Amino acid sequence: MEHAEFNKDLLKFLNASPTPWHAVATMKQRLDAAGFEELDEKDDWSLVHNRGYYVIRNGSSIVAFRTGAQDAAASGIRMVGAHTDSPCLKVKPNPELRRKGFFQLGVEVYGGVLMNPWFDRDLSLAGRVTLLDGQGRMLDTLVDFRKPVAFIPSLAIHLDREANTSRTVNAQTDLPPVLMQVPEEDTTGFDELLSQQIASDSGTKVRKILGYELAFYDAQEAGFVGLRDEFIASARLDNLLSCYIGLQALLNTSGEEAALLVCNDHEEVGSVSSEGAQGPFLSAILDRWCGAGKVKAIARSMMISADNAHGVHPNYLDKHDENHGPVLNKGPVIKVNHNQRYATNSRSAGVYRHISDELGLPHQTFVVRSDMACGSTIGPLTAANLGVTTLDIGVPQFGMHSIRELIGTEDGFTLFRVLTEFMQRKQVF
Q1: Full set of structural domains in the chain with CATH
Q2: Which residues 6+ apart lie within 8 Å of 114 measured at CB?
Q3: Which has more pLDDT, 192 or 188?
Q4: What is the pLDDT of residues 342-365, one digit of tens each?
Q5: For residues 349 and 181, what is the distance between their CA atoms, to the nearest angstrom?
Q6: How far is CA 331 from CA 203, 310, 327, 337, in A?
């Protein structure tokens, strides 16, 4: 895959994946097209060498792997991890608000949302719905309104003269989006509107909505930015970018070596769930793949946790350690924290630097300022759960956790090239 093709395909992936469920569905389509076989956790498995498989849990997390030419206990597994979720505004279970003829939906803040950028944006709505269909069968379906259907208007500065110096956002009262105007006698419910969209999307006749997990998202598509198109702007770059990079690396490996991609949901809220990185999903897959050889396989394995890094912002240079300010388009960022907020150690960092140097590709290093708190990733969680040597790395970006984020056009492709080589390396250590 060439550089330009990589970035154009990345935009398609981002635009097709407004929620974790859509992201996993998009990855499933690509894995199916590449000949990977889907496995069901309820069934018996009979894995063979030199094959590709994948497992989906809850529709929002996925593990895909190549078994390689020999037993994983002898070869180890080259693992890459990412997460499918992004901070957003999720619709509450009983969301309907009618005020002064405006139909609004109550929302719950999911993850560490940078809330101010959500105002005055064209918003759409997507997610998973559980329902009874026309025959009374219970099923899950994906829904995506696609077009802009909502807006969170700012309060005019004339009504808040201190807006530019002291305005704060109240998540309960300030964030309910406006979807339409309705007459006083209108009794149209959200479930009815949702049922109409599902019928339009899939032709499914809805007898009853039983539940949903829906999120508003930026209706503006991903695109190139800059006088020389040197940037990509999009929603959900944290961390669908890493999901895409890891998937493309797995699909482009030779298949001779055992390799695995895990994309977990719920990283943005702590990863404590059945499909999150603190849950048993990955370990359960490895148990069934490796059997009694799991401990030996882990001892020969390495995990690269890929999650975006904070690029040095030219307007806020003092927010970075002066020797560790990653620059966009200057290479992926090895993330280090000796208090174990990142799982990188000298050995795992050395493996990445060695491969990157062999390929003649750039890399950078990030350490948070000593007087600031450090974020974290699925890296330490996976390292602790499995006992696997782990590296934390990511593409540098601006605007992390905003509704629209920015990366350089070079760094994703660079990380893809290194991860592809890592996943087909005969010996990691």
Answers
A1: 3-86+235-423 (3.40.630.10), 88-218 (2.30.250.10)
A2: 87, 399, 400, 401, 402, 403
A3: 192
A4: 999 999 999 999 999 999 999 999
A5: 55
A6: 46, 12, 8, 19
Task: Report the Cα–Cα distance between both ends of the chain, in Å, rounded.
Answer: 27
Using an 8 Å Cβ cutoff, are 30 and 247 in contact?
A: yes
pLDDT category at 428 given cuts 50, 70, 90 is confident
Residues in the chain: 429
Long-range contact set of residues 185-188: C-beta below 8 Å, sequence gap at least 24: 186/103, 188/103
Rg, Å, the chain Cα set: 22
In tens, the pLDDT along 256-304 reads: 999 999 999 999 999 999 999 999 999 999 999 999 999 999 999 999 9
User: In sequence order, which residues have a C-beta less than 8 Å from that of residue 314 and are 6 or more positions away?
Assistant: none
* Helices marked H in 203-341: 237-252, 281-290, 294-299
Measured at the CA of 156, the angle between CA 155 and CA 162, to 5 degrees, comes to 85
Tokens of 54: 């994948």
The token pair at 299 is 């001892």
Q: Return the percentage of the chain with pLDDT > 90, whole number.
A: 93
